[in-house]
């Protein structure tokens, strides 16, 4: 295999504040932000648009359920993307897979912006929508692992948690940008917004992907992978090795990630639809969601710094316990049907989610050896996103449609996070481990 034209230092940097590391961290952050802009833009559209233009023959409650079902399809595809891109990322390199995943995402999102509605082409419209959503899911499934490892595997040991979190920081940044773009579109009269205004944020994806590709193409391959490439058996099968030799690490990584993704599904997707349905102004709700993404970004930065000092597990557990305590207060705030109530709920929820998000990348990555780290980390993270964020909005909508009350929903929320906390307690602490010794 030909080597990359841009080469990395033979040894790890001693600081994150060098031209080489700044370029790596910028690529990790900007690339993830653009990918998650595309992926999470769909979540916002599913809450406020798609039930009105692609599922027009259902009553309001079940149209929302169907809309969230297509959202779940993308999340279901994420582990598939993680497995495929992770497998080849462990065999062919992190950088190649990052470029491919970004191109796939940009094409799918731009195509969504051009998709005819059900009124124009009938049932084919939601079928095409689901197909493109699956492509999005596969693409974002391959993005996170590569973006995270490019940073983690080249960072100094005592700053790995913070470096790895730059891939996670891209998620709230992309979410804020996507939400603001859709919020701006909602300023149009409803008729124009539903006819064409919602498409503009999707079409912007093409320009954002082009910008991110320019940055990403300048990044060097991970030196740990370059060393592995010279020594590894060309016939090895990383995807099989993860399931046969590291099933415990995979299971614990999935359960740990489910906690923060459950928070995401509840407060940034289901709660948007619920607040608007109860009378809150949708533009105000989306602006509050964008502000909450900033709160999540700040919490991610703080918790990532703390996890390098106190350990990944302690910080994760603090976030999970806080999420359990906040479940019923958040549900009650959402049910007020006011922008202020939703804003308080989403800022609280996203802040707690960010506190879990900061240490999560390093926590998962440090459980797998270099030869399968892309595959193992990607499958664990993406499977947790499918379980937590992918199905939570649909399940929550179904529970509310069937029971019209939040007691069962809140109890379920707390139970899920308690199970996640047990997994974190059982898992090994990776802060002091050498990546080459795992």
From TrEMBL:
PROSITE patterns xrefs: MFS (PS50850), SUGAR_TRANSPORT_2 (PS00217)
Q: Which UniProt keywords apply?
A: Cell membrane, Membrane, Transmembrane, Transmembrane helix, Transport
Keyword Membrane recorded: yes
| Chain segments annotated as transmembrane | 24-50, 62-85, 97-115, 121-141, 162-184, 196-217, 250-272, 284-303, 315-334, 340-367, 379-401, 407-427
Q: Where is the Major facilitator superfamily (MFS) profile domain?
A: 24-430
Q: Carries keyword Cell membrane?
A: yes
Report how it sits in the membrane: Multi-pass membrane protein
Top-rank taxon, per record: Bacteria
| Source organism of the structure | Paeniglutamicibacter sulfureus
Compartments it resides in: Cell membrane
Chief location of this protein?
membrane
Recorded protein name is MFS family permease
């Amino acid at each position: 295999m030909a080597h990359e034209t841009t080469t990395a230092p033979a040894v790890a940097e001693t600081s994150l504040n060098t031209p080489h590391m700044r370029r790596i961290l910028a690529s990790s952050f900007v690339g993830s932000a653009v990918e998650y802009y595309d992926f999470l833009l769909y979540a916002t559209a599913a809450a406020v648009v798609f039930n009105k233009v692609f599922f027009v023959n259902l009553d309001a409650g079940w149209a929302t359920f169907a809309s969230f079902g297509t959202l779940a399809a993308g999340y279901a595809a994420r582990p598939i993307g993680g497995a495929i891109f992770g497998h080849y990322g462990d065999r062919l390199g992190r950088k190649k897979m990052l470029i491919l995943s970004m191109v796939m995402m940009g094409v799918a999102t731009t195509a969504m912006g051009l998709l005819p509605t059900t009124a124009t082409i009938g049932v084919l419209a939601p079928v095409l929508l689901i197909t493109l959503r699956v492509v999005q899911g596969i693409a974002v499934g391959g993005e996170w692992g590569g973006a995270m490892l490019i940073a983690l595997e080249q960072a100094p040991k005592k700053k790995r948690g913070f470096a790895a979190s730059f891939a996670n920081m891209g998620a709230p940044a992309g979410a804020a940008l996507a939400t603001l773009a859709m919020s701006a579109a909602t300023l149009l009269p409803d008729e124009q917004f539903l006819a064409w205004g919602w498409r503009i944020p999707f079409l912007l994806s093409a320009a954002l992907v082009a910008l991110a590709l320019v940055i990403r193409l300048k990044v060097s391959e991970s030196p740990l992978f370059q060393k592995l490439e010279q020594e590894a058996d060309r016939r090895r099968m990383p995807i099989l090795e993860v399931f046969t030799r590291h099933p415990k690490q995979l299971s614990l990584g999935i359960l740990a990630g489910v906690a923060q993704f459950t928070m995401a599904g509840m407060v940034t997707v289901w709660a948007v639809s619920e607040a608007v349905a109860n009378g809150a102004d949708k533009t105000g709700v989306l602006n509050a969601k964008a502000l909450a993404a900033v709160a999540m970004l700040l919490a991610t930065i703080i918790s990532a710094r703390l996890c390098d000092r106190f350990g990944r597990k302690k910080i994760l557990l603090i976030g999970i316990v806080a999420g359990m305590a906040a479940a019923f207060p958040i549900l009650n705030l959402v049910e007020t049907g006011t922008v202020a109530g939703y804003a308080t709920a989403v800022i609280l929820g996203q802040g707690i989610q960010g506190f879990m998000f900061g240490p999560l990348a390093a926590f998962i990555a440090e459980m797998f050896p270099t030869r399968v780290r892309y595959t193992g980390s990607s499958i664990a993270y993406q499977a947790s996103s499918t379980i937590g964020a992918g199905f939570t909005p649909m399940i929550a909508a179904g529970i509310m449609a069937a029971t019209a009350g939040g007691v069962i929903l809140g109890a379920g929320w707390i139970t899920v996070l308690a199970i996640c906390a047990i997994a974190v307690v059982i898992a090994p602490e990776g802060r002091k481990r050498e990546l080459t010794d795992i």
